[in-house]
Amino acid sequence: MDAEELAMDEVVDDGIEADISTTEAAENAQLAEQIVLRAADVDVYYGDHWAVRHCNMEVRRNEITAIIGPSGCGKSTMLRCYNRMNDLIASARVAGSIEYHGVDLYDRRVDPVEVRRRIGMVFQKPNPFPKTIWENVAFGPRVAGIAKSKSDLDDIVESSLKKAALWEEVKDRLKTSAMGMSGGQQQRLCIARAVAVDPDVLLMDEPCSSLDPIATTRIEELMQEIKAEYTIVIVTHNMQQAARVSDRTAFFTAAVDEEAGVRFGELIEFDRTEKIFSNPSDERTENYVTGRFG
Ligand SMILES: Nc1ncnc2c1ncn2[C@@H]1O[C@H](COP(=O)(O)OP(=O)(O)O)[C@@H](O)[C@H]1O
Ligand SMILES: [Mg+2]
């Protein structure tokens, strides 16, 4: 709106109000558009054990969101909520709501298999299938019916390996076993396997914890390269890694309710990574990031 229009609007009070509310609505719509995953009052239990309490957290599109905190504070548990992997644990129960692009992920009508195609996962220990490199990447798209012919699958294998920065290293040995690769290569293969089914979100649970520093750097660089295309949530016990790669950081800790005698994981602070590491709002976050605790 230019100055002249604004002056006109000032004369007509109602006009201004209407304009402000339209701007607000547009801003809200823009924010909603940015939010890929929204956890609201999420509680997770394993039997009687309260693993995560009242978690509220938003994950934004094309950002890397890091989850940090001491061992046992519920990081992996929270991550698994985002693609319904906790469904596969018999004792686990999730309460509260988790929305994916505004859709309740836990709605009865939502197919968990489709959820896991759109929201892929990379685990702590690289877990390639004991098959060839080609088979590892082609398996998902074939099962999901994304591609059937050999040549379509070849294309997906190539583009996925390129996205995972692995193509140049393995293009001449696609028909050899994935088990012969180094740990760092295997983890990039797992990333290629995850992206092969054309997901929207990648969940990574300590993806570098079994890798050496050089392989770790490769994965961190790769994350930076692919975040333009994906939304990434990474659990890491390595604070430097969170500080290096992420846009936002969630700090969890294990708290104790003395009265009730229960222990639970709790999200203490969630903010821009820069803020969490330089000027956190909560003393517990500060103690953790400065190494005084955990
Ligand atoms: N499959 C499970 N069954 C029972 N308890 C579990 C299970 N997985 C995790 N827990 C418990 O839930 C709590 C949080 O675990 P987890 O999410 O793995 O923590 P983190 O990833 O932060 O180390 C811990 O007390 C852990 O022992
Ligand atoms: Mg964990």
How is the topology of this model organized?
Elements: H1 3-11, H2 13-34, E1 35-46, E2 49-60, E3 64-68, H3 75-81, E4 92-100, E5 103-104, H4 112-118, E6 119-122, H5 133-143, H6 150-163, H7 167-170, H8 183-195, E7 201-205, H9 213-226, E8 231-235, H10 239-245, E9 248-257, E10 262-272, H11 273-278, H12 283-289
Parallel strand pairs: 2-10, 3-8, 3-9, 6-7, 7-8
Antiparallel strand pairs: 1-2, 1-4, 4-5, 9-10
Bound molecules: adenosine-5'-diphosphate and magnesium ion (MG).
Adenosine-5'-diphosphate binds next to strand 2 and helix 3.
Brief write-up:
Helix content is about 40%, strand content about 25%.
Describe this structure in words.
- It is a single chain.
- The chain is an alpha/beta fold.
- The protein has a domain at 36-127 and 200-289: P-loop containing nucleotide triphosphate hydrolases (Rossmann fold).
- The chain is 41% helix and 26% strand.
- Strands 5-4-1-2-10-9-3-8-7-6 form a ten-stranded mixed β-sheet, sandwiched between helices.
- A hairpin with a 4-residue loop joins strand 9 (248-257) and strand 10 (262-272).
- Helix 5 (133-143) crosses helix 6.
- The longest helix is centred in the first third of the chain and has 22 residues, at 13-34.
- The protein is globular.
- The N and C termini lie far apart (52 Å).
- The site of magnesium ion has 3 residues, from helix 3.
